[in-house]
Amino acid sequence: MRFSAILTLVMILASANSNSQDLSNDSTILVSDTATIKEELFTAIYKTDEFVSIYNSSNKIVFKSKGYYPSLEFKDFDNNGIKDLIIN
Questions:
Q1: In this predicted model, which residue has the larger pLDDT, 62 or 12?
Q2: Residue 60 DSSP symbol
Q3: CB distance 62 to 18 below 8 Å
Q4: Which neighbouring-strand residues pair with 31?
Q5: Residue 4: other Cβ atoms inside 10 A
Q6: 55 sits in which H/E element
Q7: pLDDT at 6 over 70
Q8: In whole angstroms, how far apart are CA 70 and each of 47, 52, 57, 86?
Q9: How confident is the model over 42-78, as pLDDT tens digits?
Q10: What is the pTM (predicted TM-score) of this model?
Q11: Which of 51, 28, 42 is nearest to 74 (CA)?
């Protein structure tokens, strides 16, 4: 639970200096989900290189972590009105 709350905070406070990515035709994407948080669209993606990346509405990476994450989803698990990223 704490990991999800931290990810929410990271997404909100993310730096504008992150790398921009084109995700439209990326065949390496295994799992993805999107959510609007504080009026900004975020996309979480798990790729074949075993990285989970979270992109903001400008397609800039705001969080990236390597690991085995076969499922992910945005969900407000703590009922605070802000969607959290659940990674399993």
A1: 62
A2: B
A3: yes
A4: 46
A5: 18
A6: strand 51-55
A7: no
A8: 10, 10, 24, 11
A9: 999 999 999 999 999 999 999 999 998 888 899 999 9
A10: 0.69
A11: 42
